[in-house]
Hints:
Elements: H1 2-6, E1 11-15, H2 19-31, E2 35-39, H3 42-49, H4 59-71, E3 76-80, H5 88-97, E4 106-110, H6 115-124, E5 128-131, H7 136-139, H8 142-206
Parallel strand pairs: 1-2, 1-3, 3-4, 4-5
Helix pairs in contact: 3-5
Protein name: Response regulatory domain-containing protein
Region (Disordered): 153-207
Family: Belongs to the ARR family. Type-A subfamily.
Amino acid sequence: MAAVATETPFHVLAVDDSLPDRKLIERLLKTSSFQVTTVDSGSKALEFLGIHHDSSTPISVQEDQLIYNQEVAVNLIITDYCMPGMTGYDLLKKIKESSSLRDIPVVIMSSENIPSRINRCLEEGADEFFLKPVRLSDMSKLKPHILKSRCKEHYNQQSDGKIDESSSTPTNSSSSSSSSSDNSNSRKRKAEGDAEILPKANRSRHS
């Protein structure tokens, strides 16, 4: 069972409003042994992740997306920057604002090499910025971000465990200290009782 679990491919959510670009990134990701889900807008990406940007979305669709999201975890999101409605930058901000999604690595793609745009995305929390057309060699840069995210998640879980242990420690020490004080009190009462008995015994011998 453990061997099967390690062979499970990382799941990437690819977001692009251009069908040719979406097909290209899907092919590159699958060639690199990633599991891929593609959507054509930022709002659909949020629906898939369980965050519902559009309140007019039918409840049945939201429930389907939530059920699917529980079954298939997303390990990385790669999104185009220029999209109608919600840009890749807007999607990035939404993901980083979510406490449950902020640790998922996000990669931005764009056909325009604009330094200010690239810096803004990186400052907002993007892990990588690819210039289009995306190449197969770019895919090798994705896995390190996923592994880094998993290590961070594991570290956070360990830290939470240590905090829980330390918070429970005072209760144990207080109970042990109270029990030790009870023992000392019982010993003290026993000593006092012995002191009362001894004089009586001495008096009986003298008489």
